[in-house]
Known about the structure:
Radius of gyration: 24 Å
Helix content: 10-25%
Number of domains: 4
Largest sheet: 6 strands, mixed, barrel
CATH topology of the largest domain: Barwin-like endoglucanases
Strand order of the largest sheet: 7-11-8-10-9-12
Number of strands: 12
CATH class of the largest domain: Mainly Beta
Distance between the termini: 34 Å
Mean pLDDT: 93
Low-confidence stretches: none
Structural class: alpha/beta
Amino acid sequence: MIQLGNALNDLDPPIKALFCWSADPANCVPDTIATRKGLMRDDLYTVVHDTFWCDTALYADIVLPADTALERVDLLPAYGNYYYTLSEQAIEKQGESLDNQELFRRLAKAMGYDDPCFAQSDEDMIRDLMDPKINPLFEGITYEGLKRNGWARAAVDSPRRWGINSGKWPTPSGKIEIYSEALAKLGVDPLPMHVPEQEGFESVEAKKTFPLQVISAATHYFIGASFQHVPRLQEMLARPTFEVSGEDAKARAIEDGDYCRLFNDRGEVFGHALVVDGLLPGVIGAQKQLQGSKMRGGVNINALTSQREADMGRGPVFYSTLAQLEKANND
C-alpha cells in the first residue's frame, strides 16, 4: 500500500494485474500522482470490486459490484466500547452484487485452488474467529448467543489479557522493557530516544523550500473514503479547506476564505484558507482522502505525501509531509 506507485511504475518485470477491493488507492495511498500514473498503463489489467464508483474505478478494465453491510452476515467489534455484535443479513443481494468472500470463493474455484479456507462459509469463518484460546476477549461468547441476543460484552476481565489483567506483557521477559532486545535485533535503537523526522519540523534544509508541516486529519463527515457518495454529506463539507495559523496567513498575505494552492515537489492541491487562532505556526491542517475527482487538479492531499516507510513497523509517513501555501492565481 505504501509504495504502490513505485510498484506499478518501476518493478521489472512489471505488475500485469491489479485486483482492488475495499480500498480506493487512487485517493488513499501515499503519492497518489505516482499511483494514478501507474494505473494508466495500457498493459496493466485492473479489476475493481466496490459498492460505489470510486476514483480507482475510473482506471479499471472491469468493475464488479460489491454488496453493502445489509446484504451479508458479519461480526463487528466496536470503536470505543467493549461489545461485539452480529450483523445479520437484512436484505437479499441486490442485482449481481457479491460480498468479498463469495467473490474470492468463485475466483478460487475457477482458478483451481482447493485450500480448505475457500470452502468455508461466512458463519464458519466467524466461528473460527471467535476462538477464546487465541483471543481471551471471546471467553464465554458463543455464536449461538450472538445470534440470539445480537450482542455480547467482551471478556475484558479475563486474567489472560496481556498486561491489563495478567501482569505479563508479550515480551521475552514478560515485563515492559525499557531496553528492548527485539528492537535491537531489528537494527533499531533498543532504548527510547528522539529521532528527528526526515520531513518535518526539524528538517532544516527541506523547510527552506517547504516550511509547513501538513496534518491531514479525518473530516467530520466521512470516514476515510467511506460515505463520500452521500450527497447530503458532500454538501455539509461544502468545500476543501486548509487550516492555517494567523501568523502563517499574514506572512503570505492570505485572508480567511482565500482560494489557495498547497504544494511541494510531489504535487499540488487546492482549497480555501481557514485562519485558525491558536493553531501552531508552521502547521497546515487539511482533510484526508477527499475524492480527487471532485477537486481542482484531480487529486487530494495524498498527492503531497511520500512513499517512504517509517523507521519502525514499515508503516506510512502521512504526517511527515512538508509543503508551501500560496494564494492561487485567477486561472
